[in-house]
Write a structure and sequence with these properties.
about 425 residues, Growth Hormone, Chain: A, 2 domains, two-stranded antiparallel ribbon, globular
Length: about 425
């Protein structure tokens, strides 16, 4: 494997930005996920196109998207408690099999012509429930796939890189297949892609991890997880930041079609440019995160990335020149990527092992669960006040979130410094 290095002047040594791939189990995971994610993005655009073709209703399209994401909000904390009490590897294996069967059911229904929007909605809900188990368990399993824990931030960043690469390539390839062969082929390819990730899981050689035995109920486990976060202000402050961002700031991505059409009188091609700019920005952010070394102050990075996200949206709200709007979208996506990935990395590296899955479940709830609510809110704002004012308000909200988090960090620094100063007296 060819090694790619960056020279780190601060540490005075070279850093391999693909170092997590030197771990066999993680390399298998990364390869399987990269292939499966391509199929996942193909299925996403095929479902959207199929629903819109059947109903010609943007509202129904939004409802289907909402149904597929809302389990993250409702179930994540309970699932985190469940995952903490069971073997993560087995859960991930079972959820991947479940997602493969869901894709197979979609492909079969569409191929046979026996489908309607209700069946698609039901299968989207099933996918959302399975995904909530899968993401929580897979994120918690990450620490077991990397032998050297110093490479964990790099592993998380490379996962994000794979996701965003699939986000750029999957819809492009899926669009060609969709227009040429129809939705059933996209669903079928997604079904086949799961063989890669399931095969990679079966080839792993993990050290047996005994699940932590607990006698308390899932509800008691949920309360303990909440209590742990309440007494861990650094973790809870990051989750609160992500919650506010997911509700008020990050849903700007749902407005990209409106921006392309209303602000620049564009068409589907113009919209694709905005999607590509967002994907490229996220990819740049993921590569930047891949250079992260253990010991990096991730909370400072979250603060700066939140500011970049807000600045990008504010610039987009005032942009009247298309290239400037695309650049603003790129910067906002980069800030969003670095913010979310830094929060994820901080939680995985700082949460106690016994509570890691529950802490991650709150992260998933704050990101994936709140996002659909934010999308509905932002869509209503855009309908009532117009796209320009909505983006402006989102940018201002993002700036307030960044400033609030900066104030929290500054307060914490002062709390640490003042007692030490008094002690010296």
């Amino acid at each position: 494997m060819t090694k790619n290095y960056r020279y780190d002047f601060c540490a005075n040594r070279r850093v391999n930005i693909f170092r997590a791939l030197t771990h066999r189990n993680y390399r298998l995971h990364f390869t399987g996920q990269a292939i499966s994610l391509m199929g996942t993005w193909m299925q996403r655009i095929a479902v959207s196109w199929l629903v819109y073709r059947l109903t010609e209703s943007a509202l129904v399209l939004g409802v289907i998207s909402f149904v597929s994401l809302i389990p993250s909000l409702v179930l994540s904390p309970f699932i985190g408690s469940f995952v903490d009490k069971h073997q993560k590897y087995r859960i991930v294996l079972l959820t991947q099999i479940g997602l493969m069967l869901q894709a197979g059911a979609l492909a079969t229904m569409v191929f046979l012509g026996y489908y309607n929007v209700w069946w698609i909605g039901a299968l989207s809900l099933v996918q959302g429930v399975i995904n909530t188990f899968d993401v929580t368990a897979r994120q918690s399993l990450m620490v077991e796939l990397v032998d050297n824990k110093a490479d964990l931030p790099n592993a998380i960043a490379l996962n994000s890189s794979a996701f965003n690469a699939a986000r750029m390539l999957g819809p492009a390839l899926g669009g060609i297949l969709l227009s040429t062969y129809g939705e059933a082929v996209c669903f079928g390819i997604n079904f086949i892609s799961f063989f890669a990730v399931i095969g990679s899981l079966l080839l792993m050689q993990l050290k047996p991890q005994r699940a932590i035995a607990r006698k308390e109920s899932t509800w008691q486990g949920l309360k303990e997880g909440f209590s742990y976060l309440r007494h861990s202000p650094h973790l809870s402050s990051l989750i609160m930041l992500l919650t506010a961002s997911s509700l008020l700031v990050i849903p700007y991505t749902t407005l990209l079609p409106v921006i392309a059409r209303e602000m620049f009188n564009g068409d589907a091609t113009t919209f694709s440019w905005f999607e590509s700019a967002a994907g490229l920005g996220a990819m740049v952010g993921a590569i930047y995160m891949a250079k992260t070394r253990m010991g990096t102050n991730l909370r400072f990075r979250v603060m700066k990335a939140s500011g970049l996200l807000a600045a990008g949206i504010l610039a987009l709200s005032f942009a009247s020149w298309l290239p400037l709007a695309l650049l603003s979208t790129l910067l906002a996506a980069m800030g969003m990527m670095v913010q979310n990935s830094s929060i994820n990395t901080y939680i995985q590296t700082h949460a106690m092992p016994a509570y890691r899955a529950r802490a991650i479940s709150y992260y998933i709830m704050a990101f994936q669960g709140i996002f659909p609510l934010g999308s509905l809110l932002v869509g209503a704002m855009a309908s009532a006040w117009g796209i320009h004012y909505t983006l402006l308000l989102q940018g201002v909200a993002g700036a307030l979130v960044a400033v609030g988090f900066m104030a929290y960090i500054w307060q914490h620094i002062n709390r640490k410094y003042v007692p030490a100063q008094r002690g010296n007296k």
